[in-house]
TrEMBL record:
Domain N-acetyltransferase: 3-146
InterPro entries: Acyl_CoA_acyltransferase (IPR016181), Bact_Acetyltransf (IPR050832), GNAT_dom (IPR000182)
Database matches in CDD domains: NAT_SF
Pfam families per UniProt: Acetyltransf_1
Superkingdom of the organism of origin: Bacteria
Protein name from the UniProt record: Acetyltransferase (GNAT) family protein
Molecular function via GO: acyltransferase activity, transferring groups other than amino-acyl groups
Keyword Transferase: yes
Keyword set, alphabetical order: Acyltransferase, Transferase
Entry keyword Transferase: yes
Length: 149
């Protein structure tokens, strides 16, 4: 397994983001409403197994001290192997290297596995923020980065 930086324009990142968005729409009954897009201002990491990107996630700056975790996704066939936890640590290291003291994120209340990953990794619930305020399914978390992860 290799974790590497990939540009937002990478076709494998685009395919993973599309799969993530499709799965979210199915999980919330089509209520999520997010567009299937990558953003050029997100720094993406990909997890590569046997030459294929099987997971991704990114960090987007909200302000000088805060990064937001975006588009965290592991293909279903690769879940349960600890890939998401390793990717989360790598994303926290990336956020720290970018000068962020805090990482925040939004996920759906209907995603208990994601919530479990984040809370077991030290993320604490915070008030819903930004574009997520009007989404009744949004839950948000944050973690202060004390040292490089």
């Amino acid at each position: 397994m290799l974790i590497e930086s990939r540009p937002a324009t990478d076709p494998e990142i685009a395919a993973l983001v599309a799969a993530q968005q499709r799965e979210l729409r199915e999980a919330d009954g089509g209520l999520d409403g997010q567009a299937t897009v990558t953003h050029s201002d997100i720094r993406y990491l990909a997890v590569v197994v046997d030459g294929r990107a099987v997971a991704c996630g990114g960090i987007q700056a909200l302000d000088a001290g805060t990064g937001e975790l975006k588009r965290m996704y592991v293909r279903p066939a690769y879940r349960g192997r600890g890939i998401a936890r390793q990717l989360l640590v790598a994303l926290e290291e990336l956020a720290f290297r970018q000068g962020h003291e805090t990482v925040c994120l939004e996920t759906g209340s209907y995603l208990p596995a994601a919530i479990g990953l984040y809370t077991s990794s030290g993320y604490q619930p915070i008030p819903v923020y930004g574009e997520y305020v009007d989404n009744p399914y949004s839950v948000c978390f944050a973690k202060r980065l004390r040292v490089p992860a």
